[in-house]
């Protein structure tokens, strides 16, 4: 079963241009997450099974 969990990032979660994987804690850059859909320990390189993506939420406020 596919379980989706959303994590809202705050300033403390980001370091330089990446973040710590909410599943395993490995630091991964945003560009790697966008390119591979996983953290640096994901896929064939490690044991993390989390699938990651980065969404940007746009809020249009009424004038
Ligand atoms: Zn991970």
What would you report as the Rg, rounded to the nearest angstrom? 13 Å
Order of helices and strands: EEEH
Largest sheet: 3 strands, antiparallel
Averaged pLDDT: 88
Uncertain runs are: none
Strand order of the largest sheet: 1-2-3
Count the DSSP helices: 1
Structural class: alpha+beta
Q: What characteristic shape results from the CA principal axes?
A: globular
The portion of residues assigned to helices is: 10-25%
Sheet-strand content, in percent, reads: 5-15%
Q: Could you give the count of β-strands?
A: 3
| Terminal-residue CA separation | 42 Å
| Ligand kinds | zinc ion
Keywords:
63 residues, alpha+beta, 3-stranded antiparallel sheet, 1 helix, 3 strands, binds zinc ion
Topology (elements, then pairings):
Layout: E1 14-15, E2 18-20, E3 27-29, H1 30-36
Antiparallel strand pairs: 1-2, 2-3
Protein model, in words:
A hairpin with a 2-residue loop joins β1 and β2. The model has no long low-confidence stretch (mean pLDDT 88). With 63 residues, this protein is α+β, with helices and mostly antiparallel strands. The chain is built from one helix and three strands; from the N terminus they run βββα. It has a three-stranded antiparallel beta sheet. The protein has a domain of 35 residues. The chain binds zinc ion.
Would you kindly provide a brief summary of this structure?
With 63 residues, the chain is of the alpha+beta class. The protein contains 1 helix and 3 strands.
């Amino acid at each position: 079963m596919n379980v989706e969990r959303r994590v809202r990032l705050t300033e403390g979660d980001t370091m330089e241009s990446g973040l710590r994987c909410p599943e395993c804690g490995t630091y991964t850059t945003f560009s790697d997450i966008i390119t591979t859909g996983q953290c640096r320990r994901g896929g064939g390189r490690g044991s993390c099974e989390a699938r990651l993506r980065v969404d940007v939420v746009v809020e249009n406020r009424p004038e």
